[in-house]
Amino acid sequence: MKLGICVPHYGRPIEAGRMLEVVQHAETAGLDSVWVTDHVIVPEDLNVIYREDMLDPLAVLPWLAGVTKRISLGTSVVILPYRSPIPVAKLLASVDVLSGGRLIVGVAIGWIEGEFAALGVPFKERVSRSEEAIELFKALWTSQEPEIKTRRYQLQRVRFSPMPLQKPRPPILVGGSSEGALRRVARHGDGWHATSSTPETFRQGAETVTRFWKEAGRDGTPDLSLRIPIAIDGVHRAAVDTSLLGNRHVLRGAPAKITDELRTFAELGCGHVALEVSYTTYPAIMKTIDVLATEVKPKLGA
After folding, report:
1. Residue spans per domain, the chain
2. Which of 7, 87, 115, 265 gives the lowest tally of CB atoms within 10 Å of its CB?
3. How far apart are CA 98 and CA 83, in angstroms?
């Protein structure tokens, strides 16, 4: 199992220097990945951590490529309907080139209706726009002279650049837990990116995705990954703002207990975990990285 952290580029005063320390410490300590999160303009009456002090993930990604050398760079997740897909495909391909082929692309359809309204994107079109975007990503990342016609786009006699370094292309992990989302994984994605699941809900989702995958005639098996908040005893304590977590499942307890739960996820096929740390303080984030690197990761064989 690979372990990474979500970059704290939201929910706190923006301090680029401290964020840089976190990212580079994660790489030096031997973690596998750092992840960015996507929201653009959140309604004022919605109490979520993404509402303010949030750097754009597609601006943070190229910066991450320049300040790291080894660690994978993930999106957890890009909300596909928020932006025109062709410029996003170019940006993500550029990040893969700039990072030396370290990009993991997590995507989803979005859920904050007021955010769609502010962006002028019809909420009811989020599924069709998302699936169209994935289709375009695949075409653009595998052919320099793509020819493709979708509901909203028609490409012919054009040249796309740069091509990603990863071949055939960067992996696309699809988020969401509804039946529609899990079918989207099977039809369009390379794997499932679950969020704040308990081991039981993850097991159910993984089994459903695998069944849909086989029904779709896909070879092999889907990649399985998870994004989940973490609260380590003796590290976070009251520093974790639980009001922003809602009813989300949290990896909580002593390092040994957290290791045991992560081992359970690994046994269920989860190959990569992105741990949310933005709910706490910078010193606690740095300590979390240390604990993960010295007390958790070695016991997972990660």
Report:
1. 2-300
2. 87
3. 22
In angstroms, what is the C-alpha Rg of the chain? 19
Count CA atoms within 13 Å of residue 166 on its CB side: 20
pTM higher than 0.85: yes
Quick: pLDDT tens for 139-161: 999 999 999 999 999 999 999 99
Q: What is the DSSP string of 191-218?
A: EEEEES--HHHHHHHHHHHHHHHHHTT-
What digits encode the pLDDT tens for the residues 202-231? 999 999 999 999 999 999 999 999 999 999
Q: For the domain 2-300, what is the CATH code?
A: 3.20.20.30
What gap in Å lies between CA 59 and CA 48, rounded to an integer? Answer: 21
Q: Where are the alpha helices (DSSP H) in 120-215?
A: 126-142, 179-188, 199-215
- The partner residues of 75 in beta bridges, in order of sequence, read 36, 105
